[in-house]
Structures
1.
Amino acid sequence: MNVTPLEHWIIERTHIAHKSQEAMRAYQLDELIKTLAYAKEKSRFYQTMLKDIDLNSIVSFEDFEQIAFTTSDDIKRNAYNFACVPSNEIERIVTLNTSGTTGDEKRILFTQQDLELTIDFFSHGMRCLVDESDKVLVLLPGSAYGSIGDLLKKALALSKIECIVHGILNDVEKTALCIEENNITCIVGIPMQVLYLSKAKSEVFAKHIKKVLLSTDYVPDVLVEALNDNGECHVFNHYGMTEMGYGGGVECECLNGYHLRENDLYFEIIDPITGQPVEDGVYGEVVFTTLHRQAMPLIRYRTGDMARFSTKPCACGTFLRTMEKVLGRMENKIDINGHAIHLREFDEILLRFPRILDYKLTVCEKNSLHVKLILANKERCVALKEEVIRRIRDCFPFEFNFRLHVEEDDHSPKMTNSMIKRKIDNNIRNKG
């Protein structure tokens, strides 16, 4: 196995003298202190939050861990209070809407330098999986300047790798034709959309696609297994979010967790209840701090994602840390008769059926679930439904009601130009 390309890149960017976590942590602590000083001076939000913090007293990570967290709600209240540069220096504003209501919008701000840092990360991160012999199809938004697809295309151009930014999957026939006409070998896209494409156009996918990079949402194990096709397709995971500057970490050839963008981001895993750091190997909530963000630095930002740091060094031989694959959002669960049911548990059950292209899980009323399946066709539908019900009952052996509804895929465009993560629809909570 080759050492992740991120290692050499990070050493070049940080100028650390030794390949060690000790040297990296010393670098990160120094950059954290600079970030605190910058944010306290430039940002109205952090001027208030850090007003009682004597920055001269921050001399260790333990000191840094006493600083309050930044949350999604803080950004929703007024993103412009985070701004550290004049409005004419803001090159891109990304509006994130998680529920369809104006009150839930978050705005993330970037300068040109912020965007260049992302291009730099993408350029080296993509070398984990592609080279000049590959042709990459990006199934992510890319028409706008500074969008994730636009940045990826620019990053791949630096490595002389051909890239077509196709946009969100909304026409399977058109996408399959693009793959064939351009001899695409690698796809970058949203997990469930790439899986849908692989099932709806299985022959085209199997013939052409040798590598996949999944991004923007958590990735169920069963989805990786389905795309892997008995080793014919190598499935890489990327971890990132807009608040991070899109990129946070990417898997190396070992495909066993993300190596992180440690030169630009400092990551913590905390107990979501106490807020205290957890030991490596223990699951908790991912928290990050930006180290070089100009427009909108974020300090101890709570992501809501569940993950853990690996306790073992990566087989690729890097000194960089490895974060095991994110398990999804902590809030993406429901309570049924005192039992927590996570979306990822339904993924592992339902996505094992080759005929299920997609599904939707809805809480209709107390202790009652509605499962809607999208099938390639409705032949032998009764037998499939019976098997689905059996597996769900075996996995959740406690009392609850659920309805199973089946629809046949009509091949009409279903995907929207949206990066909203999948979730369980809780109608009870929404009505409240």
Note: The first helix runs from residue 5 to 14.
2.
Amino acid sequence: MREFNMIIDGKAVSAVRGLEVVNPASGRPFAVVPAASEADVDRAVAAARAAFPGWSGTVAAERQRLILALADALEANMPELMELVTRETGKPLGGLNGVGAGMEVGGAIAWTRVTAALELPVEVIQDNDEARVEVHRKPLGVVGSITPWNWPLMIAIWHVMPALRAGNTVVIKPSELTPTATLRFVELANAILPPGVLNIVTGERDIGAAMAAHPGIDKIVFTGSTPTGRKIMQSAAGNLKRLTLELGGNDAGIVLPDVDPKAVAPRLFAVGFHNNGQTCACLKRLYVHDSLYDEVVSELARIAREAVVGDGMMSDTQLGPVQNKAQLRYVHELVEDARARGARILSGGEMPTGDGYFYPPTIIADAIDGMRVVDEEQFGPVLPVIRYTDLDDVIARANDNDNGLGGSVWSSDIDHATRIGMRLECGTLWVNEHGAVQPDAPFGGVKQSGIGVEFGRYGLEEYTSIQTVKVMKR
């Protein structure tokens, strides 16, 4: 079993107690990581604070050079990182439509390079005979990053790289369920960065809570559930930490009656089941017009039955296991509730026997608003399909949810679909697509799906404070 260490102030740090990391494809541990104490958090924060003056004072071009070196390190170690991602998350190396560990590590490299190139220019508000007024962006200090288990390495990169680019130092805590790829990345990074610039602590929820409340951390960036995000927000009030919270999503997609069911079904399946449905911005509620409902659900069920589910290390696997046993039980609970309330399970819907946390891709027909599987975020390989007839009514139903991360409209008339989609209450609208994010376009939610945005210039600015400088000329 492979053993990992934390990295604090550039040095490997162990702990008295270890945490086993389970491979969800087998249900058995494959690695051990340290169980940090609150004292370890204190040491990591102290190291980051000590490193902040030097790092923030480094010229932007040098920080960019070092961040590009981190991208090179990720690329040079891509096979090892892919294997760690697959073993800890269960996702295939390749996966459905190429959405697997290879995409995760490749995406981490791409995001690193794009983020390195971002600029924070001084904005001139006034420059006349009387005065010059400038707006400067300055780093906040120490950023605390808390990451989830579904895209552990890529989301770590989403948090860490803009923080470093803006001149902050970082303490990161990965999910205790999927810490290994992030630990390895931080180890590689500390061969490039000055000591204390990037530190990692591993542990259970108490360590994340200690970071959220820590007076030495100036900002928390968190990706995860809405209930946990609320707790972080409460804890962060102690020193008025800045926050970026990317929280739960229960994304709706609306299929208009002018599409070809056979052509659109594979695309709908792909965006509903990539990463086994374990993505905040997956398609999670599918509203289909009555005129083509039966044909769409029939095609989706056929695709689901033909999907290859198995160990992510096997080359032909399209969908791996659910990442953990608790999530597997929750997913099945939602399916059983829908079955009991009259929904038809067209594919899947059965808890398999044997090793691992596998669940077959499940298409639920005759789902209705009010069923748990529709109203709650499934975060697993399940897609409820809901029938509609009236366009205004379906928009209201899609919006009648506490979440507002993403949404999509599917149509052969792009302009019409865009007008319809703009009425959805969500942070990102996709037309004939769902869940596709990119490093130069802002991404974030409304309502209970979070605060702030990530990616591109807008995301980078979230890691800074504004300083207005007014220089009088007379």
Note: DSSP finds 15 helices and 23 strands in the chain.
